[in-house]
């Protein structure tokens, strides 16, 4: 396969979170790249120590516009794989007809789809808190373990926080509930795979499943797959390679069908 994959990281992460995935998919024959969101370039520990000026004002429209420009500039439509908020960006690129296929892992859902799940409500309220203004949300080791890497031991979670976590704009999360978080789910689209993580405290697996089944066009392929025992850090915790193999196999089948 000679398609290009663009990986899209989620909130509180940056391209470093895709390092192993980029190597894996390059070894299977893809050209792969993992661009940073605006204001997310560099080593995570440096970004935490020196919060980029303007991070608190970063919007979903700016994040989406960044990847829209990248995808539109490709000579052939790429594949996109997004985690969390990156999964919503991947779905929006798919809806705009810019990609050959999209995969959303523990993906934020469009169209104000919410979950009556305590972890989801707790995290959403904490991040979007209007009384915090536009101060960036600081991801601590404690919060990372409780919400992001709850399937890991505290020791392993702290190591993952040190290696991968960054602070984040609250505004990006707030924008999900506005017009920038909307997708017309009735329209035809290229193949879409959404993956849920059973123990996810941020984007509950039932919400990801509901997102997948909300697509209405019967001629278009939209599929849901769930991995047991995984948290929101599914792309970085042990067993990430099992998820990557599953995605690779799905892409092989669907990209072959598109070519045919």
TrEMBL record:
SUPFAM superfamilies noted in UniProt: alpha/beta-Hydrolases
Alphabetical UniProt keywords: Hydrolase
GO molecular function: hydrolase activity
Residue stretches spanning the membrane: none
Residue intervals of the AB hydrolase-1 domain: 5-236
Signal peptide: none
One protein family per Pfam: Abhydrolase_6
InterPro entries: AB_hydrolase_1, AB_hydrolase_fold, Carboxylesterase_BioH
Domain of life: Bacteria
Name recorded for this polypeptide: Alpha/beta hydrolase
Source species: Luteolibacter rhizosphaerae
